[in-house]
Fold these 4 entries.
Entry 1:
Amino acid sequence: MLFTSVPFVLFTFIVFILYWFVLNRNLKIQNFFLLIGSYVFYGWWDWRFLFLLFFISMSNFLIAIEIQRQEKKHYRKWFFIAALLINIITLVLFKYFNFFVYSFIHLISVFGFKVNMLTFNIILPIGISFYIFLSLSYIIDVYQHKITVVRKDCFDVLLSFSFFPIILAGPIQRPIGLLPQIQSRRLFNYVQATDGLRQILWGVFMKIVIADNCAVTVDTIFGESAKYAGSTLILGIFLFTVQIYADFAGYSNIAIGIGKLLGFNIMKNFAYPYFARDIREFWKRWNISLTTWFRDYIFLPIAYFISRKIKSDRFYLIQTEILIYTVGIIVTWMLTGLWHGANYTFIVWGLLQGFFLFINHVITKPRKKILKRLNVRHNNILLTFVDSLITLMIIMFSWIFFRSSSIEQAFNYISGIFSMSSFTMPEVTPKAIFLIQLFFVIEWFGREKEYAIAGMFSQWPKPVKWIIYYGIILTILWYSGEEQQFIYFKF
């Protein structure tokens, strides 16, 4: 039941009507109804994995109660470790088991050993990375006394792990932010609901008109990259750069919009990342819920641990601050890459992000000094354009590893780009290029808003606004063809 499918539209409509106009007098019944609706939505993909979702959710709920109930620190710690193991082992088993087995076999084969090890044809439960991270954040926040568990809130907590707009691909709205909204009475707000519909409309436009149109050419170019000129390969990675943004940000906009329809405020997940001036700013704008999750639960604990162990300003010849940042950023981004999939391409992609972030961190202060000496302001138009262009090129380069099926394919793709054929005319797709230009013009003028068309037409006459909305709808219908899954469903 894709967000862009007719069954999902009917499902959301039924949920909306019953939720607001039949069950609106009782908050507990409303929440229970949303929980059942979320399980129906998730079970629509594969009902067997409902048992896994329920097991993970109930395990975390019950162990969290024990963590809070225990007065002795070591008992709390053991329950906390048990919860971490349940979540992490489940994720590793379903997502990484065969990858680690194959990696181990390859490693020992380097030393001349041959071994046959057992592997399984394991089906990856859709959305597992997202609801495992929701569960982990709940357990960690309970352990750190950031959130209080109430035994009677079982259904509310289960809903915070499985809320249907966000369970498959985020945003990773942590229970600490979602639970208070679930437990508070919600009243229908016409302005919020219409804003939600507008955001859903823009999300569907991003997915069907932009992402899916790019996907056709991207799949063709990456599928047979050896036969294309370097210029066409550059076009291919540019189109993928647009595709992955329009696809994932489109999903996030739809999810946030559905949340608004139901009276929830789900966190913003994208803030026009391709207008960023450096790699650090880019990752503050891209998949915000995931990057802040890794920052809070991986990077900061590592930085705190190292800073406690090393009291001096230097560790041998290395500045402690640089050491902390380097170790933290490498571990964080290696895990971020691995989170995206069981493939070395994702690990390399993650390490590349860590490398570019490290370079950015090192040159920030010297760069400011140089600009000051040259009397060049930070907001200089030319400097802003050059910074943004360099950042976009870095991101495009790293997306090659993200999109490739293997390291070998990625390097072959890169070698194809760095050839004389890159100076030839690419096999252009005019329709896609026109749509992309239109898309980024709208994004640019709407970059100060929560999403591109939020309030863009608010001062215009109603007839003009409705013409534009109907124009968007007709464009969506015109370009809607074969349904394509969202890219992040496989993560």
Entry 2:
Amino acid sequence: MRIARFSSYCGFLAFACGAAAPAAEVGPEVVLPASPRPAHTPAVACGGGKYLVVWESGRAEHADIYACRLDETGRLLDSSPILVCGAKECQDRPRAAWGKDCWLVVWEDVRNDRDFDVYAARVTPEGKVLDPDGILVAGGGNNQCSPDVAFNGESFLVAWRSWENNKYMAAGARVSPGGKVLDARPLPLSAGLPQNSGAGELKVASAGGSWMVGWASRSYAPPGAPGGPGGLFLSVVDGAGKAALSHAIRNQGMDNVKSPVTVASDGKGGYLFSWYNGTTGGRSGTDHGMPYGAALFDTSGKLTATTVLGAPKAYVRMPAAAFDGKGYLIAHWLGHRRDPNRGFQEDTNKIVAFLIAADGKYEGQIEVSSGKPNPSYAPAVAGDGKGNALIVYERHPADADPLETPILIAARLLRR
């Protein structure tokens, strides 16, 4: 990947492909202020009439968590980034959710010099970090990693992957808006998961006072043993922390559900899930794409609709979903497009958003960032409930060494 200055311009750029042009438009690119080291893995949450964008600055033992606020029009509010946590060693993979008068930012943290733990910190609408060193949410032996977070109206649910008995399981804990961890022991979100199946990267959203945690299963079978069943697993968690597991979509035929997954909620009675499905055939030339790329569920975990994303086999990579008040959107990274007639790969590195109505009907897709001259990567998205959504992504240098010209975070507001 390479970096350069992306030209900002006034007005709105709309580009649609696939179905009829959707009634949506994308605003000018806003480049967030640089953090001390190259920026990676952004996330975004909306609340209090503002967006909070979080990211990791640096890699490995030099990674810290930074943030920046934008108003509901996408205007930058901070001239320099906010340091959320600068503890020793590595803090990375941040996620955020809005609750009662604050955001809760969560991340995986290896300050113990041994393995990952999960930490959290509250950030006010004014950009003040209330927990500068972070709150320990999950620690102990082995990895507690890849957290996500959502608010149900009363408390936050932080969900993470926990290494137990030679495989990753899903666990969680509720955190109050006051920053208190409400569960003395982790909630077993994947209790009952079939033998030799483990939890991939987790995503969590909330509707109707409960939460739904989703992941694509991974096989942890020992050599010579059959792998565990694949597909999408859902755990419905009530306000008291009780979880009920279901195998929502099974890997059969072309149902190629892989990690990472994404989940969004309309806040009332429905959820949308999408997943990575980038397998592109084997030696036989067989296409193992998806017959659909998203699915809707009710609050009980029952499948209510499936969505074909413009074509029977539309590939989805690094998906990030949100509900903007009028419908859902799935931002994803489109890169390394192969041209079989010419025998080469073209690095596109752009961000595209699929637009989906609240009932699951596909409405088209729109280009968010062309990737030229600055390659775009790793999108995240949050909706404001009024028909707007902020899409953020890594903005790589076009013609320079990222150690000299750092990777930045950029944002664009999508309106419909």
Entry 3:
Amino acid sequence: MKSHLIFVLCLFTAIAGHAQTFEHYFENRTLRLDYLFSGDAARQSIYLSEMSVLPSWAGRRHRLNQLPLTGNGQITVRDVKSRQTLYVTSFSSLFQEWIATDEARTIHRGFENSYLVPFPLHPVEIEVTLCNARHEVTARLTHTVDPKDILIRRRGLSHITPYRSLLHSGSTDKCIDIAILAEGYKPAEAGVFYQDAERAVAALFSYSPFKEHRNRFNVVAVMSPSEDSNVSIPKEGVWRSTAFGSHFSTFYSDRYLTTQKVYAIHNALAGIDYEHIIILANSSEYGGGGIYNAYTLSTAHHSTFKEVVVHEFGHAFGGLADEYFYENDFNSDTYPQDVEPWEPNITTLVDFGSKWKDMLKQGTPIPTPVSEKRKYPLGVYEGGGYSFKGVYRPADECRMRNNTYPTFCPACERGIKRIIEFYSE
């Protein structure tokens, strides 16, 4: 599904000129930042909603001021006194996708977003920025956080959602922590959810490069209960009461399954170590969604569940773009053709040297004709990122293009591997 992201820096570019030591600036707790992104196609704004503190920090303790990918938004944490950048992270958002829709031209809407940063020892300035498809900043919010602020809410000390460990490879500072949430499972269906979560783990770690790096991940299954089974299907007039209010037909695309109840997602995870989120929907409908550094959402009982949950995690974890395209789409607004996309697996050839050019076999034609795909398994094939012309993908087939292909292409594999190494080395 669409994961509209913006621009790419050189991998692992430092935001500041030297490394940070975690213990000098942060304690082993998490500052959760809840924002409301609002606006329309012409103008966007960012508002702070609430701040919370969680009992521990499950994120990285190294490369604190570096980014593996820039996404379509960033959060920067700076020391108030020295102005030094202490931590930076990037993301995508459903709001950024929505502002490209026709609806955004006629109505003003707001979307929930929550982000985690390490809890500071001293006052910090936090800057949040959103960018458009041309890499231009469209909204910015800067606010100061005093760690002694009595209105920072404490969460996760009691009433923790029941959960089970499905994979434990080591401590949170050494491993990547994934939480799998239940959506549309009644309390009596907990057993079904845990089985589905096990299937999701088996699916994910059956694909390279995840299977070769299985020992760098921790996974828990969190049984967040719903009043109703299944999820909402608007095209059928069916609305259900579920933990996160997930529904199909996001932006009127029938198979696009998302939720806007982001605060509820993070409330359900309070007190549990997590960095990345997979939500399983108790449904046999086909669909899902993946948003970079936000969440993966997939139905658990469709015949293509394995393929879909891995594809969507490719978006949410690896920052991969969709490699499929529509033959009647010659100039999608998603990827302006005079701008290089930041996702590692598509290019407009504006800055192809920053992508998989170094991986090509000598003599590979650019662009690469599909008729020569056997000769050049890795090439530069036109069509990708929803556009028939002007956007190029690394291989004719890939897990990010369709549900029938059994592997990620080499460029996608390298992109995911780099993300794994960024978080765990």
Entry 4:
Amino acid sequence: MADCYNWVVRYYSFEIVIEREPEDEGYFAHSPTLPGCFSNGRTIEETRRNMHEAIQLHVESLLAHGDSIPG
């Protein structure tokens, strides 16, 4: 007997903005299309990775609460 799975895969693309921290060493990132979703890091690459994780968690939270995904 073959197992049957119903998978729904969705891909999203979100613009992010990375800026140098004005008062501190490092960088700050946010997504204009995901209000309240932001992160930071010591380097641009670390900030990008951290923002990727922040977006994943933000989208998971929106879906768990039955909210729509902007974009």
